[in-house]
Structure formats: C-alpha cells, structure tokens
Amino acid sequence: MAEPSLNFVHNGLRSTSKLVVLSLLAVVLLLLDNRYDVVKISRNDIGTALYPLQWLAMQPVNAISNGMVFLEKQQNLSDENKLLKAQNAQLKLQISQRDVQLKSVISLDHLTQLQKAALPQAQVAQIVSSDTNPLTDRFIIDKGSHHQIRQGDAVSDEHGLIGQITAVQPLSSEVTLITNSNAVIPAMVMRTGVRTLVYGRSGSLDLRYFPANASLLRNDLLVTSGMDSIYPAGIPIATVIQAQSGNGSPYYRTQIEPVAQLRNSNFVLVIPQKHAQIVDHYADTTATNTLSINHD
C-alpha cells in the first residue's frame, strides 16, 4: 500500500485568481454604490459601526506621535533654558566687569583731583600685585626708582593713609600697610589737635597710650601730625569707634578703624617724604638762582 505524499502547499486559489476576483468584487461594489442608495446607507452604517475600532487602532499611533512632540518640545525648552542661563551668566559677568571698571575710573579720578588740588608732588600708581594670603600686609605698585619713588614715601588712597614704601625696584615698589605690626604713625586728633601715636597690630590699628585727661570722642578723626620726616600733616588715618576712660587707668580704652580702603583700592597716591620735598624744593630754588645769575 503506497503512502500518501506529504504536500505542505494549501490547495486553493492562486494569487492571480485572487487578484482578479477581488478586482471584480471592487468594481461591482463601486457600481452598486453609485446606483443604489441602499449600498450607500449600508456603507455608512458599517463605517459608523467600525469607527470605535478605528479610533482604538489609532490611539497607539496618536500616543506615540504626541509623545514624540512632547519630548521634542521638552528638548527645545531645555536647550532654550541652557542658552538663557548662559546668556544670563554672560550678562552678569559683563555688568560685574563694568562695575569694577567704573569703580577704578572713579577712584583714579578722585586721586587725580586730590593730586592736583593738594599734593602736586605726589604720583598716582596702580596696584599690580598682592599676596594670595588675605591677611597679607604688602602689595606691589607699578612705580619705582625711575619715577623718583623713595623708600619711606607715604602711600594713600582717596580716603586716607594706606601704608609706606618699604622696598624700591627700578620699575616697581613694595608697599607695607599701616596695619603691619611694626608700623608706628605720629598722629593727632583732628578735633582737638592732641598728638598721639597710632600703632599697627597685625591687620588692624591700635591707639594704645591716649591720655585719659584729654578729650576723645566716638567718630573723632585721627590724622597724621607731621611730627616726623615721613608723613605730611593732615592725612586721615583712622576713625575712633570706641573710647572709654576711667577704671583707674591713665589711658583710654579705644577701638579705631582705618579710613582707607586697604584691600579694595586699585590706584594709590605716593606722597614724597617731607625731607625729600625740602631737598627737591632747595634743588629747584638753586637751579633757578643759577639760571638768573647766568642770565645776568
């Protein structure tokens, strides 16, 4: 008995036959739809019945489309936010730079006016370097011996005394602040004229030996007395913050504060020493007299 052969191909209409049958069916449906209203009504009823299925079938597509649009908008918003933050940071930096530049210009203008009005022999210098230690009491300026800067010259800003030239190079000089522990400044009370000494104290100032029988009040201004060969008289040094007498002590207990911007100035005024001014004046006078004699 012969075994039946295995045939995995389904016996039915061929593809070409299916195409022909479906095409004929489509033509028939078009003709019926065009000629008979019943077919149109049936088609509308079938479409209405199938609409929920079509709506459900479109929901995944719509969800994916909406999700893609949402993600794209979120990305655009994120990019715009980053751009706005960068622009904001840039604007803040520009404003900060302009504020610093304006402050430097104002400081330089004040120093120039002070130089012209009261200290014509002084020189305006720029601070070019300072120590990275915030407690440092020294910085470097851009004027040196080539500019007739001498060791010992006083240095101030537009507010008051800052320090003293302690080292001189040809094109630069080192300035030591008045708060240095070795600084001693002859001073007087502007209101009364009582003379005293102001001492540096490792970052601050000290008025150690002001007699209790003299008048000293809060907000009194201490200025240089001119009782030495270094500091010209009348340069503001410090303001009295606290002054207490009594308790059996012959001296006031005081607290004073520098009036100069010791760590915030960009430009300073280098004031020649008193003896240097006298020497320069004597040299100028001698030269003038010599010229007059030669002319005669």
Give a description of the structure.
The chain has 296 residues and is of the alpha+beta class. The protein has a domain at 123-283: Thrombin, subunit H (Beta Barrel). Helix content is 42%, strand content 24%. It has helices spanning 15-35, 37-117, 274-295, and strands at residues 123-130, 138-141, 154-156, 161-168, 173-177, 184-189, 195-200, 205-206, 221-224, 236-246, 249-258, 267-271. Strands 1-2-5-4-3-12 form a 6-stranded antiparallel barrel. Strands 8-7-6-9-10-11 form a 6-stranded antiparallel sheet, with no helix packed on it. Strand 7 and strand 8 (205-206) form a beta hairpin. Helix 1 packs across helix 2. The longest helix has 81 residues, at 37-117. It is rod-shaped and about 125 Å long.
Secondary structure: elements and pairs:
Layout: H1 15-35, H2 37-117, E1 123-130, E2 138-141, E3 154-156, E4 161-168, E5 173-177, E6 184-189, E7 195-200, E8 205-206, E9 221-224, E10 236-246, E11 249-258, E12 267-271, H3 274-295
Antiparallel strand pairs: 1-2, 1-12, 2-5, 3-4, 3-12, 4-5, 6-7, 6-9, 7-8, 9-10, 10-11
